[in-house]
Amino acid sequence: MLTIEKLSEVIDIGKRESKNFLTKPYVDIFHQKEKICPNFKKDESTYNQFYQGDNFIVMKKLLEEGYKGKIDLIYIDPPFFTKTKYKGKIFLYHDEEEDIIEHFAYDDTWEEGFFSYLKMLCTRLFLMKELLSEKGTLYVHLDYRTVHYIKIIMDQIFGGENFLNEIIWAYKSGGASKRYYSKKHDTILVYTKGKEYIFNPQKEKSYNRGFKPYKFKGVKEYKDELGWYTLVNLKDVWQIDMVGRTSKERVGYDTQKPEKLLERIILTSSDEDSLIADFFAGSGTTGVVAEKLNRRWIMSDIGSLSSLTIAKRLIENNSTPFYIYKPNIRDERAGKLYLNEIILENDNGIKCLKIELDRYEIDLNKINIKDKDRELINEILTKNSLSLLDFIGIDPNYKDNLPNLRWQYYRNNKRNLDSIIYIKIDKVKEDQKIFIRYVDVFGNDNFMIYKIKNGKVIRWE
Ligand SMILES: C[S@@+](CC[C@H](N)C(=O)[O-])C[C@H]1O[C@@H](n2cnc3c(N)ncnc32)[C@H](O)[C@@H]1O
């Protein structure tokens, strides 16, 4: 609970802090930049972007780089003030067994209380308004815990006249209580930047009474397995199932949202080639759906598990190329990968790079895992440490401090990474550098660089 005076203080602080922040010179912290190319796209200026970091800084960077007024649609699904620490599920496959451990994804506990939560969101909403184009729309996904406070804050920032809709997303999953009505919906607040906003009305089925045909003149009717229906403009109550345990979409990230939800939002409030952003990206649902609908995207998330989940999800979806930006060059929690050998081979005139992995080492004391899982991981580390590797990306022709991870290998479908990797390479030049990025199942990343000298591959960095 917060008094109305405190709420107005939040808005004042949000306004002041965002303004101060914008007037300060920007010092770039995203020193690690990599290109991931599951698919080909010529025009590099339209490559999509993922930032692992605090979205406050990400938004400042974007504003500095000319994105003011350039984004047509922003969807955010921030923490809900649930006072919970969220996890991601990690599936470990070893010795023909499968184990599931949980790893920290993000923290929705607020030591300094509700005021600090509102302040966090309020300052960021001011920056989002700056990034939105004149025809832009902002969707803020919340629930009963905070939505009524954020509505008042958003009225102040965007103007009550730009409040477009309150969407109710209703679902069946979750618990029930005998002491209150079961809580089965989230609320999405929709605000436009101005009056000339993009809005492509979408249709939904409306079943006729008794599921029988009306046969009204001029009304088109359709039939499916339930019965007769007409198509009407989408209403503001959306019944969409959550991403269930057995859903194909499921990536194991606790608060993952269904693609269907994002599909409606993106189709309605953006056009093909529009730029879309999600600054609390989680498992990356917004980017994945934007890809499918031919929109460009920018996403950010503070967590390393989110970053790993998003990269893999996009690669699996054969997405267009994207950049990943991170603040650090080498994470101090990083593990180390050891190779048995890395050599150049010539297979019937085709030049190949052969990389044979040996083992992976990591200091478990630096990782946020439960004590009960520690023993299991220790055992895996001694018996089959490579099964803790989740992703390997390789640039066989590394230049200009910008790895282009054209080759990507990742665990999926209950399969660990192969321990021998072959890469076809077109040209081999003296001093050519080979960049190898590797990420473990906890999201910790590291890299190594090799160099070609006198036809041999030697360790460089
Ligand atoms: C509810 S989840 C988003 C889930 C997402 N919509 C999906 O479909 O997977 C909220 C996300 O916000 C991220 N987050 C929280 N504070 C952040 C901040 N200051 N900057 C960037 N990301 C943040 C968390 O790491 C978490 O992944």
Automatic annotation (TrEMBL):
Keyword list (alphabetical) reads: Methyltransferase, Restriction system, S-adenosyl-L-methionine, Transferase
Would you say which domain of life the source belongs to? Answer: Bacteria
| Residue span, DNA methylase N-4/N-6 domain | 71-303
User: What GO biological process, any one, is recorded here?
Assistant: methylation
Methyltransferase is among the record's keywords: yes
UniProt xrefs under InterPro entries:
DNA_methylase_N4/N6 (IPR002941), DNA_methylase_N6_adenine_CS (IPR002052), N4/N6-MTase_EcoPI_Mod-like (IPR002295), SAM-dependent_MTases_sf (IPR029063)
SUPFAM superfamilies per record: S-adenosyl-L-methionine-dependent methyltransferases
Q: Tell me the GO molecular function terms.
A: DNA binding; N-methyltransferase activity
Family to which the UniProt record says this protein belongs: Belongs to the N(4)/N(6)-methyltransferase family.
Please give the name of this protein.
Site-specific DNA-methyltransferase (Adenine-specific)
